[in-house]
Amino acid sequence: MTGVLIISTTAAMALFLWFVLAEAQAWTASEPREALIGGGLSVLYDPQAPQLGFVLAAVVLVLLVTAGVALFDLRATNRSRRSSDESATPLAPRVVMAETRGVFHGPVTVTVLIPAHNEETPLPKTLSSLASQSYLPERVIVVADNCTDGTADLARSAGVEVLETVGNTEKKAGALNQALKEVLPAQGPNDVVMVMDADTRLDDGFLEAAVHKFTQDRALMAVGGLFYGEEGHGLLGQFQRNEYTRYGRQIQRRRGRVFVLTGTASLFRPKALRTIAEQRGEKLPGRHGDVYDTAALTEDNELTIAIKSLGGLMISPAECSVVTELMPNLRLLWRQRLRWQRGALENLGAYGVTRQTFRYWAQQLGIGYSVIALGTFFLLIIITALSIDRWIWFPFWLGIGLLFVVERVVSVWRGGWRARVLAATLFPELLYDMFLNLVYIKGVIDITLGRKAAWGNTTTEARNLSRRGTDEPAVSHNA
User: Fold this and answer.
1) Which long-range contacts (C-beta less than 8 Å, at least 24 apart) are formed by 452-461?
2) pLDDT tens digits in sequence order for the chain, 479 residues long
3) Angstrom distance (rounded) from CA 49 to CA 393
4) What are the CB-based long-range contacts (under 8 Å, 24+) for 211-216?
5) Which residues are bridge partners to 57 per DSSP?
6) Which helix (H) or strand (E) holds 460?
7) Considering 25, 115, 131, 184, which has the largest number of Cβ atoms within 10 A of its Cβ?
């Protein structure tokens, strides 16, 4: 049903725009003009441009749609913040503030859970990043899930606690559910729980900034990290780093308002996790008593929607940044992104269209439309290149393209000179975007046809490939 809704809505949007263009603009061929550059280079150009009224109407339409989605999202957020309905929004700031008014529950402490399956290679750097924080966690627990390597022994030798799962067949979500059932009962209101991946390194000051946020706002239910890509992996690695840099910039411009509480590193108040477990099977999908929905492919995205649906307040401040692993080849990147895309669609299908999920639906429809727009753009370039004898330049569209290039460069500026050069070349990144669009198409088709999803641990496989220096397939645990 989710796939059918997205496909039909996106197609209707595209057909409507095509109809508007056909009615509003009559295109007629004109004779190109010749210009000499540098005294000898002859180029052909066509000064034809769309009518000014049409251009202004297009700009106004885009602004209205963007503002409409943003205002609806802001209205939904503000409504949750102001809600005092404990039954509908038990995590809403007004409800939480009323419960804790005049009561001091002690200083904020942090208990870190690190789910790990055969993670002995990256785990030392992860633990080192925790040990070097200016604010040290109260407890660090490595959740060793069906490990066949030295993960558990390595964690013990590093001086942290180890919790080994028993009979877990529900991957990362199942391992975390087992750990939380052990940890949560002893947690006080200010004893926040942090969940972080075993291949993530916290930047300096992460925990201190997160604890400060929780201390200053007792209604805050979760703090998520902003993730950036590790160095290496050539051009494909730079594509991913640029993508993550743009996402981080977008969240900062939203003043930390979260799209997804990243699984790489996020902190939660016990009240949020307990309330989610209580609401599973009633207001929320999943099994009653579980914090994480074991049926969700993207447990971090699902948990974000769960907290929002219960009225919870969450942020991703700029000070809370982490470095995460990247995919070294297209095959593993395809699998990783297909998992993310498929999981996002399944989460939306489970929650339906609500105030809290409206922006997520709008994002999926926006991606669907970009598939059509970018695909059409490349198709027109190919057709034009094959059908003309000499290339003709259109100054108006060159100007539009230049503005687009400037935006691409500015949005990755903090990523360094390599990020800027790649963004300035434009077409390589557009091809990368087209790759992601193909992932989107595959995800929509799979969920529409009801195909069963089966995923391996892409990060573990990527790490094995890096160690061997080859693209030979690796055997990995489904996690």
Assistant:
1) 453/297, 453/339, 453/342, 454/478, 455/297, 455/335, 455/339, 456/335, 457/117, 458/327, 458/332, 458/335, 458/336, 458/339, 459/197, 459/199, 459/325, 460/117, 460/118, 460/119, 461/332
2) 666 666 677 777 667 666 665 655 555 556 777 777 766 677 877 787 777 777 787 778 778 877 887 787 777 777 777 777 788 899 999 999 888 888 888 899 999 999 999 999 999 999 999 999 999 999 999 999 999 999 999 999 999 999 999 999 999 999 999 999 999 999 999 999 999 999 999 999 999 999 999 999 999 999 999 989 999 999 999 999 999 999 999 888 887 688 889 888 999 999 999 999 999 999 999 999 999 999 988 999 999 999 999 999 999 998 999 998 899 999 999 999 999 999 999 999 899 988 888 888 888 888 888 888 888 888 888 888 888 777 888 888 888 889 999 999 999 999 999 999 999 999 999 999 999 999 999 999 988 888 876 655 666 666 555 555 444 333 333 33
3) 12
4) 211/108, 211/110, 211/135, 213/315, 213/317, 214/108, 214/190, 214/267, 214/269, 215/107, 215/108
5) none
6) helix 458-468
7) 115
User: What is the distance between the alpha carbons of residues 438 and 18, in angstroms, rounded to a whole number?
Assistant: 22
Handedness of CA 393, 397, 403, 406 (dihedral sign): negative
Bridge-based pairing of strands 265-268 and 220-224 is antiparallel
Look at residues 452, 412, 240 and name the one whose alpha carbon lies nearest to residue 336: 240
Backbone phi and psi for residue 34, each to the nearest 5 degrees, phi listed first:
-110, 140
Contact indicator for 197, 324 with CB cutoff of 8 Å: yes
Adjacency order of strands within the sheet including 321-324: 201-202, 321-324, 226-229
Label the pairing between strands 139-144 and 161-164: parallel
CB 163 within 8 A of CB 144: yes
Residue with tokens 């005049």, as numbered in its chain: 102
CA pair distance 470, 81, nearest whole angstrom:
51
Q: Are 35 and 391 in contact (CB under 8 A)?
A: no
> Between helices 427-449 and 358-387, what is the axis angle to 10°?
120
Residue among 357, 347, 379 at smallest CA distance from 453:
347
Task: Please name the amino acid found at residue 401.
Answer: G
What DSSP element (H or E) covers 201?
strand 201-202
